[in-house]
Amino acid sequence: MKRIVSTFILFLFALSLHAQTNPKADPSKIAYGDNKAAGNYAKIRGMNMYYETYGEGKPLLIIHGNSGSIGDFSKQIPYFAKKYKVIVADSRDHGKTLDTLNMVDSLSYEQMSDDYAALLSHLKIDSAFVLGWSDGGINGLLLAMRHPEKVKKLAITGANLWPDTNSVEPFVLKYFDGIKKYYDKQKPSIARTVLLRHFNLLLTQPQIKPASLAKIQCPTLVMAGDQDVIKVAHTLLIAKSIPNSNLWISPNSGHGFLVLRSVDKFNVEVDEFFQRKYKKIAGRDLFQN
């Protein structure tokens, strides 16, 4: 079990390090997630939420995944900051937003989506484009459901509606359950508290009914890799359940394709979605579009 845990921690560290220091992805070598020039704290909902802003233009909120942070998007921030005002934050109990750890309440996606709505209000942003990866995609869905006025357009990748073998590859659930059981037995520490909250989140949440996605009225781009940890059939279900949705399944791709191998394609696809007018295709247009 120690070997499994070490492998997982090393994977997260390597992914974050790759995202932050790869010179091709970040030619300006900005330390995203630790940039004093762009960083600040928002005192909202009983916590200090750390966030950074980049660029000018229409606001774009980018939301990271489980055990992630702002630094995961070092390949998206410089691209989108050329034409948008990019807002990236460390979610509750993640990154530098850790002053919630002494609270007795458990972590939930609903809490986190409400946090992001409050952050936009704190920044005096009425509505924004929203991009979410993995748990960030779940937060994006809930943000559009619970605070529809805040989301102009939504793009999500690698999100799920519930955590079982119908939605997630069985290996993944077994893998994280094993790590959680390992940390259950360890001595109390901040690291243990953080990881247990994250794993509990992955293994027990969300619990979103497909029919409830009909509340999402904004245009939505639903994405995943064709070999994602989230099953393609489940991603298709999400897209079918949202009234104004587009679907993109990236070929030969896993859960992290947006930061590891298909960065340019991903950024362009999302950018084009935000820029174009959404339309329903029907009748003869089905042959021509």
UniProtKB/TrEMBL annotation:
<dbReference type="InterPro" id="IPR029058">
    <property type="entry name" value="AB_hydrolase_fold"/>
</dbReference>
<keyword id="KW-0378">Hydrolase</keyword>
<dbReference type="Pfam" id="PF00561">
    <property type="entry name" value="Abhydrolase_1"/>
</dbReference>
<dbReference type="InterPro" id="IPR000073">
    <property type="entry name" value="AB_hydrolase_1"/>
</dbReference>
<keyword id="KW-0732">Signal</keyword>
<protein>
    <submittedName>
        <fullName>Alpha/beta hydrolase</fullName>
    </submittedName>
</protein>
<feature type="domain" description="AB hydrolase-1">
    <location>
        <begin position="58"/>
        <end position="181"/>
    </location>
</feature>
<dbReference type="GO" id="GO:0016787">
    <property type="term" value="F:hydrolase activity"/>
</dbReference>
<feature type="signal peptide">
    <location>
        <begin position="1"/>
        <end position="19"/>
    </location>
</feature>
